[in-house]
Design goal:
Number of domains: 1
Distance between the termini: 45 Å
Structural class: mainly alpha
Length: 241
């Protein structure tokens, strides 16, 4: 049986939690997510920023665990599952509702990241940034696991390099590059900051089953999802801040 989006996953392709955690990292260790942390840090203070990231990602881990259990149980992609539950017409209606939400989500993320990068490096070309971000996003969504792994291979070194450069700049210049405090009237409180973090990935929730159908057991899913969001995504966002 081939690894098609319309077929069940063969047993030989099922992954245990260590390898699936690496796969999840392909989604979470991205330039986009680094810049989400940077944006949030500009909008709040450090005492709110870190707790908000940790609390929101713990909530996201719980939500994605529930969504991911569907993929583990049925071993079918989301579109196929909707078809089984709601029929062909119902599936089309559901996808018509979900698709605009996903497009808005991608557009919002892309615009925010592009503006953040331009704020740091004004000499960059806006159209080029948008093209690269959209291209990488498309790459991670095609060819299923291979596309995600290739996307990760491209982005993980970039994220690591950005973090290293930022760390060196802080060590060399000290407070000269400290994040400026947002005006008191514009600061996000803890609840608002948690909502901000959750918005970064909540739009992906209906599609998590497309990836978790490759997990061997529900225990593997729970461990990988917990490490992915609570640890990896939190570290990426905090590093961005």
């Amino acid at each position: 049986m081939g690894n098609s989006i319309f077929t069940e996953v063969p047993q030989s392709q099922l992954k245990k939690w260590p390898s699936f955690t690496i796969l999840i990292s392909a989604l979470l260790i991205q330039v986009n997510n680094l810049m989400f942390g940077f944006n949030l840090r500009l909008l709040t203070d450090l005492r709110t920023f870190i707790p908000a990231v940790l609390i929101a990602n713990a909530i996201l881990a719980g939500l994605f665990l529930l969504s991911g259990r569907v993929g583990v149980q049925w071993r079918l992609p989301a579109a196929t599952l909707y078809g089984k539950i709601f029929g062909k017409l119902g599936c089309k209606l559901i996808m018509l509702l979900i698709l605009p939400t996903g497009l808005i989500w991608i557009g919002w993320m892309t615009e925010m990241v592009a503006k953040s990068l331009l704020g740091i490096y004004p000499s960059l070309n806006y159209v080029l940034i948008i093209t690269v971000i959209v291209g990488i996003s498309v790459l991670s969504s095609i060819k299923e696991l291979k596309g995600m792994e290739l996307s990760s291979n491209l982005q993980v070194p970039i994220v690591a390099l950005v973090i290293i450069i930022a760390g060196i700049r802080v060590l060399v210049t000290g407070n000269a590059n400290a994040v400026p405090e947002a005006p008191l009237s514009e600061k996000l409180n803890l609840v608002q900051s948690i909502s901000y973090v959750m918005l970064t990935w909540i739009g992906f929730l209906p599609f998590y089953a497309d990836y978790t159908r490759f997990v061997r057991t529900k225990k593997d899913l729970a461990i990988a999802t917990g490490i992915g969001w609570v640890v990896i995504y939190s570290l990426v966002m905090i590093a961005g801040g």
